[in-house]
Write a structure and sequence with these properties.
With 212 residues, this protein is of the alpha/beta class. The chain is built from 8 helices and 9 strands. Strands 2-7-1-8-9 form a 5-stranded parallel sheet, sandwiched between helices. The chain has a 4-stranded mixed sheet with strand order 4-3-6-5. α1 crosses α7 (177-192). The longest helix has 16 residues, at 177-192.
Length: 212
């Protein structure tokens, strides 16, 4: 939980990986385990999948509306992935960070690069790797959401996506989701304690010194 004595600025945790490597499972687990962490809801032009809820999983918009929002500077980041567009609304994220709320981003390397350009000091970048390409394909097929053609395309893109691992602050090989969750939570704990994010630290230390 957030420190009640020293106010802290929130952080943005961007989690990226090839499709099927486990970032969505990790994201859900972190949201359940971390009360101060909230999912950033993106807008997308892709069709809604079974079980998804408008405003909770994504904001579903058509291509024309998405283009208008890009021109208006509405997005903190936006990217085209597998023929569909994704973007993060800027306003809600900036308000949350100022209030000390941490934001979780389930995004690809393109979106992470854009956030890096726009909000470097607030960003923590985590890349998830699969233990092997064989395991990656197995996980993709186990989801039973995509056709064989889509699975093949995602596998062909995986190598290019994984080539961006060096752009991230942390890298976890997801052999065990339980271990990956523990490691991600340790990263969050350390990043929250960074001196630069503890906005009330200077005043707190001043008070301590005045009392001595």
């Amino acid at each position: 939980m957030q420190n009640d004595i020293i106010q802290r600025r929130g952080l943005m945790l961007a989690v990226s990986s090839p499709s099927g490597a486990g970032k969505t499972t990790l994201a859900r687990a972190l949201l359940k385990a971390e009360p101060d962490l909230r999912m950033s809801v993106s807008a997308t032009t892709r069709p809604k999948r079974p079980g998804e809820t408008e405003g909770q999983d994504y904001f579903f918009v058509d291509r024309e509306e998405f283009g208008i929002r890009i021109n208006q500077g509405y997005f903190l980041e936006h990217a085209k992935v597998f023929d569909h567009h994704y973007g993060t609304p800027r306003g809600p994220v900036e308000a949350a960070l100022a209030a000390g709320q941490d934001m979780l981003f389930d995004i690809d390397w393109q979106g992470t690069q854009q956030i890096q350009e726009n909000a470097r000091d607030d960003l923590v970048r985590l890349f998830i790797l699969p233990p092997s390409t064989m395991e990656l394909e197995k996980r993709l097929r186990a989801r039973a959401q995509d056709s064989d053609e889509v699975v093949a395309r995602r596998m062909s893109e995986a190598s290019a996506e994984m080539s961006h691992w060096q752009e991230y602050d942390y890298v976890i090989v997801n052999q065990s989701i339980e271990t990956t969750i523990q490691q991600a939570r340790a990263i969050l704990a350390a990043e929250r304690l960074k001196r630069t994010r503890q906005m009330g630290l200077g005043e707190f230390v001043k008070t301590l010194r005045d009392q001595s």
